[in-house]
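Support request from a user on the community tier.

User writes: "When I paste my structure tokens into the form, the page sometimes reloads and wipes my input. The last time it worked, I copied everything first. Here is what I submitted, just in case something in the input itself triggers the reload:"
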């Protein structure tokens, strides 16, 4: 240890983080050693892996892309498909209605991350944001009651109700911070953190699972025949590394009462014209507390989709369509901006 300390530079520069001096670095190193107590975990790099480069830059052994990117011009997305003329044309059609997009990390949580960050952005722009927070937390309270009525595997939850309550408390604090004026820059910085967003993402997954299991009759026909509802949720909804299904997306929007529009980047053709497939999840009532339903439509560069009679509300645009709009690609889910 003494020889290692002797050869270290005065400051350790970390990518995308504040520099550490030697004392701070070794204090953290010793704390982690005590916490791990010799156990092998994904946090511990391989024995021969250098985490301190010759230049003195401290590098994460398996650096991961950021959970969220910055806003980019939507037209730049064509560069992701240099050999696909069809998808390039679809993107150009989307550019008629959207100007920017924001990437999310392509892991199993991309939908939940995009959905919640887009919601928080919209919340911060509302005139009556506190009323929206009240509405949201009322929906969460109903889901909590339903959650507590379900049976949960103790191997997964030591204390299901305690865990649910603790993460709901974090959710409540975050949405109230945004409603009370948290800046968009600070919101973005917080969303780049790993631990708190992951806990909230786990809550979003539980909300979707609770919705599916409590309304089994509504969802059973969409679940593979060889699975029951509980097995489906255990395998396809709850695990953090599992990519979202359309059923899970639908269940989450219904559980929280949040209208959502999905623009799907695909290869849809009609009468020889490329079209964009669109899915809208929205409430029947203006209050957002009634039954939900889904609408599917197509639009192209030569056609204008008929307006949907969605009513009005904080989460609907001036034309009565969902404010939250995501772009679904094969392995990604991005946030779209009009």
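"...and here is what came back when it finally went through:"
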């Amino acid at each position: 240890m003494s020889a290692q300390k002797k050869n270290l530079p005065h400051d350790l520069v970390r990518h995308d983080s504040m520099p550490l001096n030697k004392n701070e670095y070794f204090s953290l190193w010793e704390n982690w050693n005590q916490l791990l107590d010799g156990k092998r975990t994904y946090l511990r790099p391989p024995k021969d892996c250098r985490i301190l480069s010759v230049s003195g830059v401290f590098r994460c052994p398996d650096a991961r892309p950021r959970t969220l990117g910055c806003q980019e011009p939507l037209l730049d997305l064509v560069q992701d498909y240099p050999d696909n003329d069809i998808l390039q044309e679809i993107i150009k059609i989307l550019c008629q209605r959207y100007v920017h997009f924001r990437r999310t990390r392509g892991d199993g949580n991309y939908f939940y991350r995009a959905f919640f960050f887009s919601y928080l952005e919209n919340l911060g722009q509302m005139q009556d944001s506190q009323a929206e927070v009240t509405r949201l937390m009322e929906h969460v309270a109903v889901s909590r009651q339903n959650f507590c009525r379900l049976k949960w595997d103790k191997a997964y939850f030591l204390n299901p109700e305690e865990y649910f309550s603790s993460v709901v408390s974090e959710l409540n604090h975050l949405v109230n911070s945004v409603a009370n004026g948290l800046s968009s820059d600070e919101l973005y910085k917080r969303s780049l953190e790993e631990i708190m967003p992951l806990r909230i993402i786990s809550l979003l997954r539980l909300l979707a699972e609770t919705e599916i299991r409590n309304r089994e009759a509504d969802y059973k026909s969409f679940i593979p025949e060889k699975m029951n509802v509980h097995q489906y949720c255990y395998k396809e909804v709850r695990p953090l590394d599992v990519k979202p299904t359309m059923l899970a997306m639908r269940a989450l929007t219904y559980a929280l009462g949040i209208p959502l529009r999905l623009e799907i980047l695909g290869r849809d053709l009609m009468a020889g014209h490329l079209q964009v497939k669109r899915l809208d999840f929205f409430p029947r009532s203006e209050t957002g507390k009634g039954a939900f339903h889904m609408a599917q439509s197509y639009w192209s560069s030569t056609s204008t989709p008929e307006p949907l009679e969605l009513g009005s509300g904080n989460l609907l645009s001036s034309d009565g369509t969902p404010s939250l709009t995501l772009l679904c690609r094969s392995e990604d889910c991005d946030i779209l901006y009009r």
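Agent notes: The reload is a front-end session timeout and is unrelated to the input. The beta strands are 11-14, 20-21, 57-58, 68-73, 100-104, 260-270, 273-283, 292-299, 325-328, 333-337. The longest helix spans residues 129-149. Escalated to web team.
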